[in-house]
Amino acid sequence: MNTRSERLFALCGTAFVALQLGGTFLAMSAGKTHDLTIGSSSASIARAIAHPVGGGVWAGAYMEMLSVCFFLAFAVWAAERLGGGLLGSITKLAAAAAAGGGIVSLAIINVISYRAGHGMSLDVAKTLVTTGEAVYVATWFLNATLLTAAGVLALRAGRRLIAWSALAIVVYTLVLTPISVDNAGQSSQILYLLWVLGTSIALSRRRSVPAPGPVAAAAAQQA
User: Fold this and answer.
1) How many angstroms separate the CA atoms of 40 and 61, rounded?
2) Across the chain, which distance is largest between two alpha carbons, in Å?
């Protein structure tokens, strides 16, 4: 793969992070339906669905959906860049599953946004909020699977920073998600996005190969 292709795939990882965070913050700032969680009170949910959402919510939702395409391109490239093989296949499979779960979760949120201000009952809204977050939290464990496989691949490839940071996020996710879903558990996904960004930058750079020493050079000449 040439340098231009490497840079394009690395940009996919960067674009994923930018669109994911930008879309989320835009949708949350433009309406109240996008930041509803299982911890939201009945009053908060009722206020969120009382009025139709604005265009900013839909623009943010579009950015988030679009980010999934860039994520898949990044994941396939990163798996191959780190060595591929069985672990690479596991990385790709986990990425595809996480992307599918993310799309389902976003679709449920969009249903809430679409029905807001159009007579949706509180019970229906609460059910959708719970279902959407359940699917979203499930993707955290798929992301952990991706990070585990990619981390071991990176360790084999000598990419220690990529490897140990990935495995540290896995431990953080698995330990703190059951303790605090909406707080510490949610923070694991910010760390995950930072890992994607850092890995995109690191893998786009060609690793320098040390020049052979005099003994190795002499042996090569004799051969």
Assistant:
1) 20
2) 84
What does the pLDDT read at residue 108?
96
What is this structure's pTM? 0.86
CA–CA distance, 205 with 208 (Å, rounded to integer): 9
Collect all residues with Cβ–Cβ distance below 8 Å to 183 and sequence separation of at least 6.
none
DSSP letter string, 109-142? HHHHHHHTTTT--HHHHHHHHHHHHHHHHHHHHH
For residue 206, name the pLDDT band (cuts at 50, 70, 90): low
DSSP 65-123: HHHHHHHHHHHHHHHHHTT-HHHHHHHHHHHHHHHHHHHHHHHHHHHHHHHTTTT--HH
**Rounded Cα distance, 182 and 179, in Å:** 9
The burial class, CB within 10 Å (0-12 / 13-18 / 19+), for 183 is exposed
CB burial of 57-89 (b: ≥16 within 10 Å; e: otherwise) equals bbebbebbbebbebbbbbbbbbbbbbbeeebbe
**Cα-Cα end-to-end distance for the chain:** 30
pLDDT in tens, 4-36: 777 888 899 999 999 999 999 999 999 888 888
* Extents of the domains making up the chain: 3-222
Q: Which two tokens stand for residue 172?
A: 């953080």
What are the phi and psi torsion angles at 94 (to 5°)?
Answer: -65, -40
